[in-house]
Amino acid sequence: AWLARHGSSPLGFDTETRPVFTKGQSRAPATLQLAGEGTCLVIHLAHLELDSAGGWPPGLVDVLQNRSILKAGVGVADDAIELWESYGYELCGRVELGGVHTDETARRQQLGLKALAKTFLGVEVPKSAAITKSNWEASPLQTKQLVYAALDSWVGREVFVALGKLEPSFTQPSAQRTAASERSIPELYARRLARKAVRAQFETLDSALLQQVRHEAEGPGKLPRHGAKSQRARMRAVRQHVGALRQECARVLACDDLLQLYVAPPPPQTSVQMAGAPEEGVFDTEVD
């Protein structure tokens, strides 16, 4: 019922996953959130009632896979990959907001939802570590969990709408781009693996360089005192340079799929009303 009433573009999108504290382990996303105008749907995937064929409700699948229905958020590609790996469904119509920036000198710095909400909506989004690390697979979810989950998806949609008002050319090109050239989830997954391999190579290089620096600095002292000091200074400078290069390459790799868009920040607001923000009871948990 919710999807029939509110499942039109644009939607805010997010997921929540039960945390794991053992390296190398992971869990499937436990919730999926969609936000429409003034309303949010929190789907408890960990306890979702499947259809007769053992799949998700067709209405939900249709919305998720419809490229013309935009789903905006931060880290959307990562969430989409986790959904695909865990449940086999592709999320289409993805709009990544993390590449939006208000500082033209910081084009490769990804913004989080909290920073986006502060900049473009003028609201402070509370982030509770206790709720973030809570058990999202438990049933029923607590009210504070539902509000927390709904708020993240609401921020995604409202930031997207606000960007359209500040930069009118933003919304329509987003729809055209996602429909024409959106990468498939398997392709995104392959690119993620390639990035991990490149990062591992940089980390190996950095480790080897550090060992070389230590070897030169702590060697047998064959160089004169002033020569040894100069050598250590040169090696330190080289290591700093390579380290900075590694970090920059990692940022570029991480932001490769981000929509890079500069938007002038809105003027400061003296008073802010969180109109339409989800509060207790202002969300739905029905999927049909």
List the helices and strands and how they pair.
Layout: H1 2-6, E1 11-17, E2 29-36, E3 39-44, H2 58-65, E4 71-73, H3 76-87, E5 94-96, E6 100-101, H4 113-121, H5 129-132, H6 143-166, H7 171-181, H8 185-217, H9 225-254, E7 261-262
Parallel strand pairs: 1-4, 4-5, 6-7
Antiparallel strand pairs: 1-2, 2-3
Keywords: Hydrolase, Nuclease
InterPro entries: 3'-5'_exonuclease_dom, 3-5_Exonuclease_domain, RNaseH-like_sf, RNaseH_sf
GO biological process, one term: nucleobase-containing compound metabolic process
CATH topology group of the largest domain: Nucleotidyltransferase, domain 5
CATH homologous superfamily classification of the largest domain: Ribonuclease H-like superfamily/Ribonuclease H
Count of spatially separate domains:
2
Mean pLDDT: 78
Query: Helix content range of the residues, please?
Result: 40-55%
Unreliable sequence segments = 269-283
Number of helical segments with 4 or more residues: 9
Structural class: alpha/beta
By CATH, the architecture of the largest domain is named: 2-Layer Sandwich
Taking Cα atoms only, what radius of gyration do you get, to the nearest Å? 23 Å
Strand content: 5-15%
Shape: globular
Q: How widely separated are the two ends?
A: 5 Å
InterPro entries: 3'-5'_exonuclease_dom, 3-5_Exonuclease_domain, RNaseH-like_sf, RNaseH_sf
Organism: Haptolina ericina
Pfam family, one: DNA_pol_A_exo1
Keywords: Hydrolase, Nuclease
Characteristics of this structure?
single chain; 288 residues; alpha/beta; Nucleotidyltransferase, domain 5; 2 domains; five-stranded mixed sheet; two-stranded parallel ribbon; 9 helices; 7 strands
